Amino acid sequence: MTRKQRYEAVVARFKEIMPVAETELNYSTPFQLLVAVILSAQCTDKRVNMITPPLFAAYPDAEALAAAEPQEVFEYIRSCSYPNNKTKSLLGMARKLVSDFSGQVPSDMDSLLSLPGVGRKTANVILAVVFGKAAMAVDTHVFRVSERIGLTTNSPNPLATEKTLMKYLPAEDVPDAHHWLILHGRYVCKARNPQCATCEISDLCRKHERDLKQAVSAADRN
Question: Do residues 155 and 3 make contact, with C-beta atoms less than 8 angstroms apart?
Answer without folding.
Answer: no
